[in-house]
């Protein structure tokens, strides 16, 4: 059973609303929010480690773990973006979306 998606405002803009928004399924939104909540907890834990004067190498390992988790969120979001927003814009004839997504990917891989 497919979850309902909100129409893509990039493709179906409302009058007076030029802001683009995502249109991912509720399942995808829940997964992204869940991952971000875990990352937020990791970052709070890192701050606590710093405040408790935990050994630097241990803190650096936790920072690496949090960065990896953020990369995971970015990969998931990029995948969903490519399969929905970008695909729809290409089908609508908007070739400029390719340059936009390439610019974003180049930022991610810096």
TrEMBL record:
**Which residues are listed as membrane-spanning?**
none
* Biological-process GO terms, alphabetical: negative regulation of DNA-templated transcription
Region called Disordered, residue ranges: 1-27
Question: What Gene Ontology molecular function terms does this protein carry?
Answer: DNA binding; metal ion binding
- Descriptive protein name: Copper-sensing transcriptional repressor CsoR
């Amino acid at each position: 059973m497919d979850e309902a998606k909100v129409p893509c405002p990039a493709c179906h803009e409302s009058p007076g609303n030029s802001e683009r928004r995502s249109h991912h399924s509720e399942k995808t939104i829940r997964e992204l929010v869940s991952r971000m909540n875990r990352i937020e907890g990791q970052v709070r834990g890192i701050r606590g480690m710093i405040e408790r004067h935990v050994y630097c190498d241990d803190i650096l390992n936790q920072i690496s773990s949090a960065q990896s988790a953020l990369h995971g969120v970015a990969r998931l979001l990029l995948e969903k973006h490519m399969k929905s927003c970008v695909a729809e814009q290409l089908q609508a004839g908007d070739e400029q979306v390719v340059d936009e997504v390439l610019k974003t990917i180049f930022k991610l891989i810096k």
